[in-house]
Write a structure and sequence with these properties.
The chain is α/β, with parallel strands linked by helices. The chain contains 39 helices and 16 strands. α20 packs antiparallel against α21. Pfam families: CHAT (PF12770).
């Protein structure tokens, strides 16, 4: 073979090693009027590039020309190779019958080594079509021939494909063995695109084995590799959507899938990928609570898969379509039959999703009162509880719990729920990022709700309290995994602060900020991505809650009021004097509406001249008490009260409620969290730290006076109030007072921040502390705002501090008047000097304020959290 022939032969491997360069050389070759054989190669290279990275219609045109030139060159192997490439493109275009026919001709025309390559590509097509047994058979025939020919690249591709098929069939161990063997081969080649694909596939394997952080890290690494090659990543988008959904990030998965669909449509890309992206979008929309979007996406996916003759995929899309219709409130015998048929077909494929379909059929049947049919379907789904990945086992335990409920066995319901939530706990503790831990609890919401209902019927208030605690604020039960000492993460945080500070300055000066905001969002995505890669380190599921321990610590004087919500109504669990009592209060939806009215009133009262709104706000406080405490308000006694609200009521200003107004009052995300705070000892050598950030209307006027009161306090203000120095001083402090503008980020709660001289200090920064301050006072607006996520979890600044060694926080959940805050803070510290707890000092500080509307609203806006 001549040098020219060698150069042309190198083009085909190059299309996956350096796609852009391969495309350029192929076009240059065609410009040189090559012979038929070389023209065939050039058109094939351009066709592959367009098929995988561009316009599928152009790909088919080039591949047909490549086939014709191969026929003119009278080379059977050349023609067979092109027919295989064309077959893949036709299948991706939805023309399945033509594609398979091209493969038949390719297998017939090729011999030996070339036939093995054709078989590998047909195996890939079988995988795309969901025909996994045929895929495994073709790979089985191809691999020995490729190995014998010492064809490293194609052997590695075949092993990677076989591993991917094993994953689709739920055989994770076999898949990992093939991925490992393929990766060893890839390390000996320069096929960068194939290497990126191998990393992506390992990410999928990590996900299938239940390791979400590693899956996210590997998928991000694969994306970086693809980006360096300048190639689109539609398959990666689909896989990342799957992982994001499992991590409880369904809205993000929906946004990613929809963005990829728009991009694919824009380049005229593969219709097979579009169908798969639509399926991912449908799943994400359903999990995000948008059944109508899910129905639209799933219905279109079903039509595309059916037209492409992809029965395996079509059946999965039908499952999502039925789930979405059920979520939209539709229930019928037809829907039960459809779900049962889907379950049967998925089981025949060996698909891991089969138990989900059986569970769905059983759930719909139960809703119709068809107990015999429900039992049959649920019994099938329940078999998955003893094996497989965590979410599959949870599906099985959910089915078992529904079986027990239908049989009237409260004990059986509670046992199944306990076992299922234990599985979730084990899975949750593999996640290092507190956000992922919080969002993962959503997958146990049904089990927890079933257990609470069973407890309400048969177990009494104590058991209901245990199950209420079982699924709320679980993220706070253990300290979060410390972010790694990653130089890129640390430099990213520094760059984020710089950009955020410049954007804030530009806003204040009226200069354009769009470019700065785009860069800030990009840096936020990078930081968040790196923190999501963290693996959990804590063994077990954290401390177990014990009612007896709680009652012992409460004693005879303190009352703890835990609010549970069952079927939309508030259940009040009043703990104290050695017992737990239950009272029924109002509807949660009405309480949420009233709480929003109160927030609006407090915002108005933060400005002078709004005194007329005070009676309206006070009346709303009385209505809130009726809705949230009901008859329990008359049984609170005269001592301190701890309120444990559900996540959706975290913004209620509890001190506004008449029965709580004059009390020592604290708030806690859970009873277990309050117990841990109560048992947290102050640091033996902790100091006092006072921080004053920039831009405050009063200049943080309380800080200089407090500095005089605490002679040994460390004071950080003006240029000294920079994030690294502030974090250094806060670590292990006994008391920290931070006067700084707070910003709550509902879209990304862990980027909620306090403004320092060099930019924002965010929740991610506090998670780097070895020990956060024992007591911390945040004297500005919105520092106590939290995002309710997962089952009943809260993300924000306050909840980030509590597992890190902070036993008590004073913070504000509404906008306040800066000037009115100063006397409140001074009075608060006076109480602390006298040896009072934060809750006691805050109660006395409110009473010491002037009686006008402005100061009263300021006092109500602040709450004490924890037990210090």
């Amino acid at each position: 073979m001549t040098a020219g022939n060698d150069s042309v032969a190198a083009l085909l491997p190059m299309v996956f090693a350096d796609p852009g360069e391969a495309l350029t050389r192929a076009r240059a070759l065609l410009d040189a009027d090559p012979d038929p054989s070389h023209a065939s190669v050039a058109h094939q290279v351009i066709g592959i590039w367009q098929r995988d990275f561009g316009d599928l219609r152009l790909a088919l045109n080039h591949l047909r020309r490549a086939r014709d030139f191969a026929a003119r060159a009278d080379s059977a192997d050349r023609e067979a190779d092109v027919l295989a490439t064309l077959g893949v493109a036709l299948v991706h275009a939805g023309r399945t019958r033509e594609g398979l026919a091209a493969f038949e001709r390719g297998v017939a025309r090729g011999g030996g080594h070339t036939r093995a390559r054709v078989l590998y590509r047909r195996a890939y097509v079988w995988w795309v079509l969901g025909r996994h047994r045929e895929a495994l058979e073709d790979v089985r025939r191809a691999v020995p021939v490729l190995r014998q020919a010492e064809d490293v690249i194609w052997t590695a591709r075949a092993l990677t494909l076989r591993a991917t098929v094993h994953l689709a069939l739920g055989s994770v161990e076999r898949a990992e063995a093939d991925f490992t063997a393929a990766e060893a081969l890839w390390d000996t080649t320069g096929q960068e695109h194939d290497k990126a694909d191998a990393v992506e596939s390992r990410g999928l394997a990590a996900f299938r084995s239940g390791d979400v952080p590693v899956a996210l890290r590997l998928l991000d690494e694969a994306e970086e590799r693809y980006a360096r090659l300048g190639t689109p990543t539609f398959m990666l988008n689909i896989r990342r959507c799957e992982v994001l959904m499992a991590a409880g990030l369904a809205p993000e998965a929906l946004a990613e899938a929809d963005a990829a669909i728009r991009k694919l449509d824009g380049i005229g890309g593969q219709s097979t990928r579009k169908a798969e992206l639509l399926l991912a979008a449908a799943r994400a929309a359903r999990l995000a609570g948008d059944p109508h979007t899910a129905i639209a996406r799933a219905a279109l996916a079903v039509r595309l898969f059916a037209g492409q003759r992809r029965t395996w995929w079509e059946t999965h899309a039908r499952l999502v379509l039925i789930e979405a219709r059920h979520a939209a409130g539709r229930g019928s015998g037809r829907l039960v039959a459809d779900a049962a048929a889907v379950a049967e077909k998925l089981a025949s494929f060996g698909a891991p999703a089969a138990p989900e379909a059986s569970l769905l059929a059983g759930r719909i049947a139960l809703g119709l009162g068809w107990t015999a049919d429900a039992e049959r379907h649920l019994a099938v789904a329940a078999r998955s509880r003893h094996g497989g990945p965590p979410l599959a086992r949870m599906t099985g335990w959910a089915a078992q719990a529904l079986r027990a409920r239908a049989a009237g066995s409260a004990r059986g319901v509670l046992e199944a729920c306990r076992r299922g939530l234990d599985v979730l706990d084990d899975h949750r503790m593999t996640l290092g990022a507190s956000e992922l831990r919080a969002r993962a609890t959503e997958q146990g919401a049904e089990l927890a709700a079933l257990a609470q209902r069973a407890s309400l019927v048969s177990g009494g208030p104590r058991r209901l309290l245990v199950w209420s605690e079982r699924w709320r604020a679980t993220v706070l039960s253990t300290a979060p995994t410390r972010p790694p000492a990653d130089p890129e993460l640390l430099s990213g945080m520094t760059a984020f602060r710089e950009i955020a500070s410049r954007a804030e300055a530009a806003r204040m000066e009226g200069r354009p900020v769009l470019a700065l905001e785009r860069e800030q969002r990009r840096l936020e995505r990078e930081i968040r991505s790196r923190t999501l890669h963290m693996r959990g380190e804590a063994p077990g599921a954290g401390d177990r809650f014990e009612v007896g321990t709680l009652l012992e610590r409460l004693g005879d004087e303190v009352r703890l009021v835990e609010l549970a919500v069952l079927d939309g109504r508030v259940q009040v669990l009043l703990c104290g004097q050695g017992r737990v009592r239950r009272f029924e209060a109002g509807l949660l939806a009405e309480a949420e509406t009233e709480a929003e009215h109160v927030q609006a009133g407090l915002r108005r009262l933060a400005h002078p001249g709004a005194e007329a709104r005070l009676p309206v706000v006070e009346a709303a406080g009385r209505r809130l008490e009726e809705l949230l405490l009901g008859p329990a308000a008359a049984h609170l006694g005269g001592g301190p009260v701890v309120i444990v609200p559900p996540g959706r009521l975290h913004r209620v200003p509890w001190a506004l409620l008449p029965s709580l107004r004059e009390r020592v009052l604290s708030v806690s995300p859970s009873a277990g969290s309050w117990l841990r705070a109560k048992e947290t000892a102050p640091p033996p050598d902790g100091c006092h730290v006072l921080v004053r950030g920039p831009g405050l209307a009063t200049g943080g006027a309380e800080v200089p006076e407090l500095a005089g009161r605490y002679g040994c306090a460390t004071v950080l203000e003006e240029g000294e109030a920079r994030v690294p120095r502030v974090l250094e001083e806060l670590d292990g402090a006994a008391l920290a007072h931070i006067a700084a503008h707070g910003t709550f980020r509902a879209d990304s709660p862990l980027f909620s921040s306090l403004r320092m001289a060099d930019g924002p200090i965010v929740v991610h920064d506090f998670e780097r502390l070895d020990r956060s301050p024992y007591r911390i006072i945040l004297s500005c607006c919105d520092t106590a705002r939290l995002a309710s996520v997962g089952a009943d979890e809260l993300l924000g600044l306050v909840t980030a501090l509590l597992p890190l060694g902070t036993a008590g926080v004073v913070a504000c959940s509404a906008p306040v008047n800066d000037a009115a805050v100063v006397p409140l803070m001074l009075a608060l510290h006076k109480g602390l000097d006298a040896g009072l707890s934060l809750a006691e000092a805050l109660r006395d500080a409110r009473a010491a304020l002037p009686g006008d509307a402005l100061h009263q609203a300021t006092g109500w806006a602040f709450s004490a959290f924890g037990a210090a």
